[in-house]
Design goal:
Structural class: alpha+beta
Strand content: 15-25%
Low-confidence stretches: 1-76
Mean pLDDT: 78
Helix content: 25-40%
Number of helices: 9
Radius of gyration: 27 Å
Shape: elongated
Distance between the termini: 78 Å
Largest sheet: 4 strands, antiparallel
Length: 372
């Protein structure tokens, strides 16, 4: 009897130790890093408008925020509606300031054509052909395949320029060392007979080598193939009806991320960066960019969530000014010698905050300048 009890105790201890890590323990069989099961009310609803849902096919279940931990979300039928038609210029005008500040000559026109989190998945899912005189505010997804080796030791570093009818020309930088690359252009309106122009280069340090140029007349059909001697590009489309569930899923993903930002109510003088939640804000911005990549920045579900983030930012920065002023008031007066290390000290010459800091030293941020 004792031997049986001892064996049972030993098995129990081994099971417990198998689920322990330094500093924490969990019951056996529980994975602390596994995502929690989705809440009952977070189950995806069938999109309203049966025809739109059927036409969406596999796109209806694609969730750009699938990597986020699934938690309860307040999904509403409004988030399932089809995307409304809008001009590309409206999307450009609605883009937040941080979208343009994060773009550079190394990223191209990503404010006008923000890129989705998984363009390859969207491209593979966009199998339904399009036929019609006019594509209105659709998402065009193109996959470029370079057929010739342009770099001696690696694959191409693509630079692509695409003009779709009267839609503003987009110029996008692909990843380095990729002969195959998929990108997207949202809010595209393209009419039969309009010109489609594609140019592709291999980027180099001092110059770019032309891969090919293709000019076609849009015949009213997708998929659209654009071929030249050294490359072939296939473009597919997701129309406004099929985009509705995708944007709704992206909106839910953003709603799961924003509370992590909004929990930071006011600046914290004792923390780096005044307690600004850099990681949470960056994650929310990436999710917003991926949503805008589907239907543009002016899409109401996207713009409403951009506004929510910017309202939080305005509140936090409004609280920052007095916090910085109080911290500045507590600084040693000018002329005071301050110990920096055991062997090193410095004398404070002057402290300048806010508008007193020279513009060239502000770098778009808030704070004080301490002259030593």
């Amino acid at each position: 009897m004792r031997a049986t009890t001892a064996r049972a105790l030993l098995v129990g201890l081994l099971a417990l130790s198998a689920s322990c890590c330094p500093g924490a323990c969990w019951p056996a069989g529980i994975d602390p890093f596994a995502a929690p099961p989705p809440a009952r009310d977070a189950a995806p609803r069938a999109p309203r408008g049966a025809a739109a849902a059927r036409d969406a096919g596999p796109l209806a279940s694609y969730d750009p925020g699938a990597a986020a931990a699934p938690v309860a979300a307040d999904d509403t039928p409004a988030d399932e509606r089809a995307v409304a038609a809008q001009p590309a210029r409206a999307s450009l005008a609605a883009a937040p300031s941080w979208a343009s500040s994060s773009a550079s000559r190394f990223s191209g026109d990503e404010v006008l054509a923000p890129q989705p989190a998984s363009a390859d998945d969207l491209f593979r899912a966009a199998r339904r052909p399009f036929q019609g005189d006019v594509l209105e505010s659709g998402l065009v997804l193109c996959r470029v395949h370079v057929l010739k080796k342009f770099d001696t030791f690696s694959a191409a570093d693509l630079l692509v320029e695409l003009t779709l009818g009267k839609h503003p020309k987009v110029r996008l930088w692909g990843p380095e060392d990729h002969d195959v690359w998929t990108f997207g252009v949202p809010t595209v309106t393209l009419r039969q007979g309009e010109t489609v122009l594609l140019k592709a280069w291999d980027r180099d340090v001092w110059s770019n080598e032309l891969i090919g140029t293709v000019r076609e007349r849009f015949a009213g059909d997708f998929p659209l193939t654009l071929e030249s001697k050294h490359q072939t590009t296939e473009c597919r489309v997701v129309d406004r009806a099929a985009l509705g569930p995708l944007v709704g899923g992206a909106a839910q993903a953003i709603d799961r991320l924003l509370p992590a930002v909004e929990r930071t109510v006011k600046p914290a003088p004792d923390r780096d960066g005044w307690g600004y939640p850099f990681a949470a804000v960056a994650q929310a911005r990436r999710a917003l960019t991926s949503a805008a990549a589907l239907a543009g920045w002016a899409e109401p579900r996207v713009s409403a969530r951009v506004q929510r983030l910017e309202q939080w930012e305005a509140r936090w920065r409004a609280a920052l000014a007095p916090t910085v002023a109080r911290a500045a008031a507590a600084l040693p007066p000018a002329g005071t010698r301050v110990a920096l290390t055991r062997a090193l000290s410095a004398r404070v010459v002057k402290v300048r905050c806010g508008g007193e800091v020279p513009a060239k030293l502000r770098h778009g941020g808030d704070g004080c300048l301490v002259e030593l």
